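dude i think i finally got it to work??
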Amino acid sequence: MDTKLNTPLLEVKELYKRFSISGDFLDQLKFESGKIRRKKEYVHAVNGLNLNVMQGESLCLVGESGCGKSTVARLVMGLEKPTQGSIHYKGDRIDTLFANKEIMPYRKKMQMIFQNPYASLNPRMTINATLMEPIKIHNPTWDNATVQDKVHEVMLSVGIDPTWGSRFPHEFSGGQRQRISIARALAVDPEFIVADEPISALDVSIQAQVLNLMMDAQQERGLTYLFITHDLAVVEHFGTRVAVMYLGTLCEVSTAERLFDRPRHPYTQALLSAIPRLNDNHSSYIKLQGEVPTPVNLPSGCVFHGRCPYANARCKAEIPILTEIEGTQVACHAIEEGRL
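look at this
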């Protein structure tokens, strides 16, 4: 598997996504200085993201809630269209594909596991019907017996008894539902899976089981993962590389081992210092000052400058570029200038 790690499977270039919060035309009209003006407001969810996912790896995208992780997942999977930028899969641009006939081959190669197993399964469909549907769509020439064999095979591979296929989702626990969601993703034999916080809604006792299941599936099927999470303990166990996100931008991209060994960006250092340790004496905690800025009115320059103890005038005025320094990609003027 490691021999594939130098081949980009997915390339995200200068990706932007903004969501309008202005309402309809009449809501946008404001009375200012004696004149009626039209004012539009946007949530700037993703801002100039550049990211490669290498074939065969597990790239973990981490950051606090609201930083844009799930929006990136939905953009990659085509559930949202980018405002600006491009997404390439194996060199082919996929963000501009609209027709079902054009995008269908990529639907089979790219699958998604959603965060909430209680909402991602259709309550009106049996487990058999849920798993048969994608197989039939992507293999229209298969007869029912072949489809059913595939359903049995994929259920067994995720530890679900095939005789449970006649049951409905409400008859299963959260962990079992997430196994069924994983089975649905694996049913069409994908190459690439986006997992959007797939264990955050599960009990801690079940999380390890689901993680191990996903790691076994990767080994057996040669899968590539974009794994979105805010749980850094999971990242340390699961990730090949880690991309740290803050307010829609990337702060740092590094191998998991190097990131936990020597975090470079001030935000990454603060994030890692918050991981609970059994022998922790609280002296290593980094307490950030200030509040997270709103994505509606982004700060100028580096989006982290208002909470960074190393920020100077350049940080407030100029947006840092993700640059490779000693094997780690980091976007920080202080590191570039040798101040940190």
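The chain is about 30% helix and 25% strand.
im so relieved honestly
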